[in-house]
From TrEMBL:
The gene is polA. Belongs to the DNA polymerase type-A family. Gene3D superfamilies: 3.30.70.370, 5' to 3' exonuclease, C-terminal subdomain (1.10.150.20), 5'-nuclease (3.40.50.1010), Ribonuclease H-like superfamily/Ribonuclease H (3.30.420.10), Taq DNA Polymerase, Chain T, domain 4 (1.20.1060.10). The keyword Hydrolase applies. It comes from Falsiroseomonas bella. Its EC number is 2.7.7.7. Keywords: DNA damage, DNA repair, DNA replication, DNA-binding, DNA-directed DNA polymerase, Exonuclease, Hydrolase, Nuclease, Nucleotidyltransferase, Transferase. This is DNA polymerase I. Residues 43-298 form the 5'-3' exonuclease domain.
Length: 961
C-alpha cells in the first residue's frame, strides 16, 4: 500500500518510530514550486495551519455523513488534503497546529477582539475532534494550547526550530503569519502551492516582513476587530512606516505630519494603534506543549489509518491509499454527489416519472428509509395558497434519486364536479407528519428545496407541534448566488435552462381563469405527476448546480450569507410586527377627510364636478377644457394620459389643479395600499406578517410583499403617521438601526476617493463636504441650496443619472446640470473612472460585481436599441453599490440572532427595510441591544471607510426614527 504517486511509504505496525517520509522528486507539483528534498542531516519543520485546512474543506464539499449520522465533509476534505500534501512534500519534522478555544490572552487586552465573529456552523463543531483523530491517524503530531492562538504556536516553534539550526515552512496563506518570514522561515500557499517569501510580503504590505506588524497596527483588521487608526489603510500605513521607521517614532512625531486629517487621526487614535500592535504581534515566547522531538516525521501505522477511514466510511480514500476497494465498510458514506448503492442515472439521463402516490403508512415508511439511505433528498410541499402563513398543507413530495420520487397527499378533497367525487384515499395528515418529522429534522439527511423559506415556514406551522426542517439547501438561492439577473430563478425556468426539460405546469393541472380549481381538488394522478416531479427536478438541479458554486466563486456567498438567511427570514416572518388598529382607523378617517377636501378643491379648479378617480375625466378637464400644453394621448385608447410624469411636469409649471391632483392620488394610494390593507392583513394577535422574496431583485436586495412594508414614504407627514401605527408589545419598544449613507460609503471605497474617504472617517456631513468641493465654497458657508444640489448629485450618480435627469431634479437647464456634473468628476476623478470601469466590465463580461464578489448579470447591456442599452448601463453603474449594501446588511442579519442569544438578550428582529433593521426589545434591554446591534452592523464588512449605524427607539416605528 502506498500514498498517491508513491511519494511516501506507509509502514506496518513493526515500522520503527522514526520512519521518515520519502521526499518527492520535485516541488509540490513536480515543477519546483513546493518544498524540495531534505538533504541528509538537514532539519526542516513543516507547520500546517489546521484552521485554514478545516474551513477550506468544510466550504468546498457538500454535506456528507458517516453511518451514525455525524457530519464528516470537513473531516473527509481535511484528510484528503493532508494526505495529498504529505505525498508531495518532505520534512524531518511536521505538525498540524490548531486553535484551542475562542478566547485567548488578546481578549484580556481588548475584549472586543474577534468578538463579532460568528460561531462555526453546528454541523462543523462535531468534526473538530474527528479532524484531530485524522491527523493522528496520518502519523502527524497535533499541537494546540489553551489561551493562545494557533498562530502563536507557529511563531514559538518557528523561533525555537530556527535557533537549533533548522528551517521552517509554514503551510498557510494567512497574512498574519507573514510577519514571521525571515531567513530560515518561509510560507507555502496551500491553494496555489507557491512559496511566500519577502518579495510576496513586500507586494502585499508594501514593507518587509519585520515591519508587517507596524503596518497592521495602523491599518487594523475588521475581520478580527483590530481597531487600528480610522481612515488609514494598508497603503497609507506602509508609506508612513517607510518614512518614520516604526510605529513609536511615527506616533511621537504625529504633530509634524502635514495632512491635517491624517495628523488628527493619528493623535486621537494613538492608543488604539498601540493596542492593535499588541493584538497582531504573534507571541514567539508562547508555551510549546509538545517537545520538538515528538514532531519527527514518521509514516502512519497502516492498521490505525485503515481503522479510522473505515469507521468514517471513507471508501474512496481507502482505495486511493492502497487499502483495496474499501469493501467491508458497515455503511458507505453518504456523499452529497454520490448514491451509496448501485450507480444511478445522471440528472440529464433519468426519465421523469412515473412517480408513486403514497397512500399507506407502510409505503411512507419505505420512502423514509430510502431517504435516510440516500442522505440527500429533493423535497417540496403543496398548499392551497401562496401565502405560507395563511395556507394549508395539501401534500408533500420526496425524491431520493433522479427519476425516483413520490407524492404524499394529505389534504385532498373530492374533485368538486357534478358527480360529487368522494374524498380520495390518503394518509392521515397528523400521522404522516409525525412519521416524517424525524427525517425532516435529521441533521444527517440534507433536504434540498426550491425557495426553501416557503416550505420551512409551512411545516413550522404544522399542527403536530411544528417541524423544523434542517439542514436545507436551496436550489433557487444556489442559482441566485451565481446568476442573479442572468435569468429568472423559478424552478421551471432553471429546469429548461439546465436540464432541457419543461416540467408539468401548474395551469395544466388546475386549469386557468374561472375554470381554475384549487390544488386540493386536483385528482391524485395529476397531482402526483406535478408534485413529485417538482421534488425530482429540484434534486437534479442541485446535483448539477451545487458543484458549480466553487468554480463560479459563489460558494462563500451562498454558504455564509444566502443559505443562512433562510432561518433568519423564517423567524422574522413568523413573528410579524404589531399594528395599532385604533390608530390605523384614526389615520383612515383623517385621510378620508383630506381626500374630501382635495376633491372639493379639484372641482373648484375645474369649474365643475367630475370623478376625481377617473384618469379619463381628469385628462379631459386638463387638455380638452383647460387647453393646457403637454398633453399626450394613449395609443391604445386615445384618451389623454394623466400618469405621474404628466402631472409632475404640469405641477412644476405651477398648474394648481395638477398639484392638487397629485396630492389626492398620494393620499388615496396610502389609504388603500396601507391603511386599509394593513387592517385586513393583521392576524388574530394584531400582527402583520410580510413575505420577503429572496431572489427577485438582480442586486441581492430583499423584496417585501403581501404587504409591502418597504415603500412606506419616509419623509412625508403621511408616511410618518403610517409608521406610527406599527407599535411594540407592552413592556417593549421598537428599535431601529439604519446604515448611514451606506451606498455613498461603498462609492468612496470602490472609487478610492481620498477626500470622500477622509470625510467619512471624520464623520463629516458628506453632502456639505461635496458641495464645498465641487462649488469651491468655504465649508462654513455651504448653504441649504448648495447642500441640496450636492445631495442630489451624490445619490443621482449612483443611479447613473444623466445631465438631463439632474436638470429635471434640480429645476435647472441641462447645460447648467452638465457643468455641475463635470465639476463633480473633475473634483473626484476616481468616481468617473470607477463608473467607466463598471460599464466596461458589464459590456465585456455581461455582469458586474459587488465589492464582495457577487456577480450581477446586466440584461440588455449589448442591446442595439440605444435607449435600452443606456438603461442597462445605468443599472450596471448602480448594481455594485446597491448590491454591496444589500450584502452588508444580510451579513449583519445572519450574525445578529446568534450574538443576541450569546449575550442573553431577548430582542427579536422583525423587519428589514432596505438599509434598516427593526427590532422588538424589552425595555430593560434597550441600551445593551442597541450597542450589540450597532457593533455587529458596523463590523459586518471591511471597507476603506467606516460603516456608521444610526440607532433609535420608541413605542412606535415612527418614534424609533
Amino acid at each position: 500500500m502506498c500514498w498517491p504517486r508513491a511519494r511516501v511509504t506507509i509502514t506496518d505496525t513493526s515500522a520503527p518510530e522514526g520512519a521518515t517520509r520519502t521526499a518527492p522528486e520535485a516541488g509540490a507539483n513536480g515543477n519546483g514550486n513546493g518544498l524540495g528534498p531534505v538533504a541528509p542531516g538537514q532539519k526542516r519543520l513543516i507547520l500546517v495551519d489546521g484552521s485554514g485546512y478545516i474551513f477550506r474543506a468544510f466550504h468546498a464539499l457538500p454535506p456528507m455523513t458517516r453511518p451514525d449520522g455525524v457530519h464528516v465533509n470537513a473531516v473527509y476534505g481535511f484528510t484528503q488534503m493532508l494526505a495529498q500534501f504529505l505525498s508531495k512534500h518532505a520534512a524531518s519534522h511536521i505538525a498540524v497546529v490548531f486553535d484551542s478555544a475562542r478566547l485567548t490572552f488578546r481578549n484580556e487586552i481588548y475584549p472586543e477582539y474577534k468578538a463579532h465573529r460568528p460561531e462555526p456552523p453546528p454541523e462543523l463543531v462535531p468534526q473538530f475532534q474527528l479532524i484531530r483523530e485524522a491527523t493522528d491517524a496520518l502519523g502527524v503530531c497535533c499541537i494546540e494550547q489553551p489561551g493562545y492562538e494557533a498562530d502563536d504556536m507557529i511563531a514559538a516553534y518557528a523561533k525555537a526550530f530556527v535557533a537549533e539550526g533548522g528551517s521552517v515552512s509554514i503551510v498557510s496563506s494567512d497574512k498574519d503569519l507573514m510577519q514571521l518570514i525571515r531567513p530560515g522561515v518561509e510560507m507555502l500557499d496551500p491553494i496555489k502551492q507557491k512559496p511566500i517569501r519577502e518579495p510576496e510580503v513586500l507586494e502585499k504590505f508594501g514593507v518587509t516582513p519585520d515591519k508587517v506588524v507596524e503596518v497592521q497596527a495602523l491599518a487594523g483588521d475588521s475581520t478580527d476587530n483590530v481597531p487600528g487608526v480610522p481612515g488609514i489603510g494598508v497603503k497609507t500605513a506602509a508609506q508612513l512606516i517607510t518614512e518614520y521607521g516604526d510605529l513609536d517614532t511615527l506616533l511621537s512625531k504625529a504633530e509634524n505630519i502635514k495632512q491635517p486629517k491624517r495628523r488628527e487621526a493619528l493623535i486621537a487614535n494613538a492608543e488604539k494603534a498601540r493596542i492593535s500592535r499588541r493584538l497582531v504581534q504573534l507571541d514567539a515566547d508562547a508555551p510549546m506543549p509538545v517537545p520538538v522531538e515528538k514532531m519527527v516525521a514518521k509514516a502512519p501505522q497502516a492498521p490505525t489509518l485503515e481503522k479510522f477511514l473505515r469507521e468514517n466510511g471513507f471508501r474512496s480514500l481507502l482505495a486511493r491509499l492502497g487499502f483495496g476497494d474499501g469493501a467491508g465498510t458497515a455503511r458507505p458514506v453518504r456523499h452529497a454527489v454520490q448514491q451509496a448503492a448501485a450507480p444511478v442515472a445522471t440528472p440529464q439521463e433519468a426519465p421523469f416519472g412515473p412517480y408513486e402516490t403514497v397512500t399507506t403508512m407502510a409505503a411512507l415508511d419505505g420512502w423514509i428509509a430510502a431517504a435516510r439511505e440516500a442522505g440527500v433528498i429533493g423535497f417540496d410541499t403543496e398548499t392551497d395558497g401562496l401565502n405560507c402563513l395563511r395556507c394549508s398543507l395539501v401534500g408533500l413530495s420526496i425524491a431520493v434519486a433522479p427519476g425516483k420520487a413520490c407524492y404524499v397527499p394529505l389534504g385532498h378533497e373530492g374533485s368538486g364536479d357534478l358527480m360529487g367525487e368522494a374524498k380520495p384515499e390518503q394518509l392521515d395528515a397528523a400521522a404522516a407528519l409525525a412519521a416524517l418529522k424525524p427525517l425532516l429534522e435529521d441533521p444527517a439527511v440534507l433536504k434540498v428545496l426550491h425557495n426553501a423559506k416557503y416550505d420551512v415556514e409551512v411545516l413550522c406551522r404544522a399542527e403536530n407541534g411544528g417541524i423544523d426542517v434542517s439542514p436545507v439547501d436551496d436550489t433557487m438561492l444556489i442559482s441566485y448566488s451565481m446568476d442573479a439577473g442572468r435569468w429568472g430563478q423559478g424552478m421551471d425556468e432553471l429546469s429548461r435552462q439546465h436540464l432541457g426539460h419543461q416540467p408539468v405546469t401548474y395551469d395544466s393541472v388546475t386549469g386557468t381563469g374561472r375554470a381554475r380549481i384549487p390544488f386540493s381538488k386536483v385528482p391524485l394522478e395529476k397531482a402526483t405527476a406535478y408534485a413529485a416531479e417538482d421534488a425530482d427536478v429540484t434534486l437534479r438541479l442541485w446535483l448539477l448546480l451545487r458543484p458549480r458554486l466553487r468554480e463560479a466563486r459563489a460558494l462563500a456567498l451562498y454558504e455564509q450569507v444566502e443559505r443562512r438567511m433562510v432561518p433568519v427570514l423564517r423567524d422574522m416572518e413568523l413573528r410579524g410586527i404589531r399594528i395599532d388598529a385604533a390608530e390605523l382607523a384614526r389615520i383612515g378617517e383623517d385621510f378620508s377627510g383630506k381626500l374630501a377636501q382635495y376633491e372639493k378643491q379639484l372641482h373648484g379648479l375645474a369649474g365643475r364636478p367630475f370623478n376625481v378617480g377617473s384618469p379619463k375625466q381628469l385628462g379631459e378637464i386638463l387638455f380638452d377644457e383647460m387647453k393646457l400644453p403637454g398633453g399626450r394621448r394613449s395609443k391604445l385608447t386615445g384618451a389623454w394620459s394623466t400618469d405621474a410624469s404628466v402631472l409632475e411636469e404640469l405641477a412644476a409649471q405651477g398648474v394648481g389643479i395638477a398639484q392638487v391632483a397629485m396630492q389626492h392620488r398620494q393620499i388615496q394610494k396610502l389609504k388603500s395600499t396601507y391603511v386599509e390593507a394593513l387592517a385586513q392583513a393583521a392576524d388574530a394577535q394584531g400582527r402583520i406578517h410580510t413575505d420577503y422574496a429572496m431572489a427577485v431583485t438582480t442586486t441581492g436586495r430583499l423584496s417585501s410583499n403581501d404587504p409591502n412594508l418597504q415603500n412606506i414614504p419616509i419623509r412625508t407627514e403621511e408616511g410618518a403617521r403610517i409608521r406610527g401605527a406599527f407599535v411594540a408589545e407592552p413592556g417593549h419598544v421598537l428599535l431601529s438601526a439604519d446604515y448611514s449613507q451606506i451606498e455613498l460609503r461603498i462609492l468612496a471605497h470602490v472609487a478610492d476617493v481620498p477626500s470622500l474617504k477622509q470625510a467619512f472617517a471624520r464623520g463629516e456631513d458628506i453632502h456639505s463636504r461635496t458641495a464645498a468641493d465641487i462649488f469651491r465654497l468655504d465649508p462654513a458657508h455651504v448653504d441649504k441650496e448648495a447642500r441640496r444640489r450636492a445631495k442630489t448629485i451624490n445619490f443621482g450618480l449612483i443611479y447613473g443619472m444623466s445631465a438631463f435627469g439632474l436638470a429635471a431634479r434640480l429645476g435647472i437647464p441641462p447645460g447648467e446640470a452638465r457643468t455641475i456634473i463635470d465639476a463633480y468628476f473633475a473634483q473626484y476623478p476616481g468616481v468617473r473612472d470607477a463608473m467607466e470601469r463598471i460599464k466596461e466590465d458589464a459590456r465585456t463580461r455581461g455582469y458586474v460585481q459587488t465589492p464582495f464578489g457577487r456577480k450581477i448579470w446586466i440584461a440588455d447591456i449589448g442591446a442595439k436599441d440605444p435607449a435600452r442599452r443606456a438603461g442597462a448601463e445605468r443599472a450596471a453603474i448602480n448594481a455594485p453599490f446597491q448590491g454591496g449594501a444589500a450584502e452588508i446588511i444580510k451579513r449583519a442579519m445572519v450574525r445578529i440572532p446568534h450574538r443576541l442569544r450569546e449575550a442573553g438578550l431577548n430582542a427579536r428582529m422583525l423587519l428589514q427595510v432596505h438599509d434598516e433593521l427593526v427590532f422588538e426589545v424589552p425595555e430593560a434591554e434597550v441600551e445593551a441591544t442597541a450597542a450589540l446591534v450597532r457593533d455587529v452592523m458596523e463590523n459586518a464588512a471591511t471597507l476603506s471607510v467606516p460603516l456608521s449605524v444610526e440607532v433609535g427607539h420608541g413605542r412606535s416605528w415612527a418614534e424609533a426614527h
